[in-house]
Amino acid sequence: MPPPFIVAITAFPGTGKTVTANYLSRALDLPVLSSSDIRGDFGWAPRGSLARESTPAEVEAALQRHSELAYGVLSSLIQERLAMGHSVLVEGTFNTQEQRESLYELQQGAPDSELIFVRCSCSRDHALSRIEHRRVLNSLGFRAGREVVDIRIYDRYRETFEDIREDKSLAGPNVSLIQYETDNQDVNRLHGCAAGSQAAAVLHLVQALAGAVGTNQSD
Question: Could you tell me the fold of the domain covering 5-211?
Answer without folding.
Answer: Rossmann fold (3.40.50)
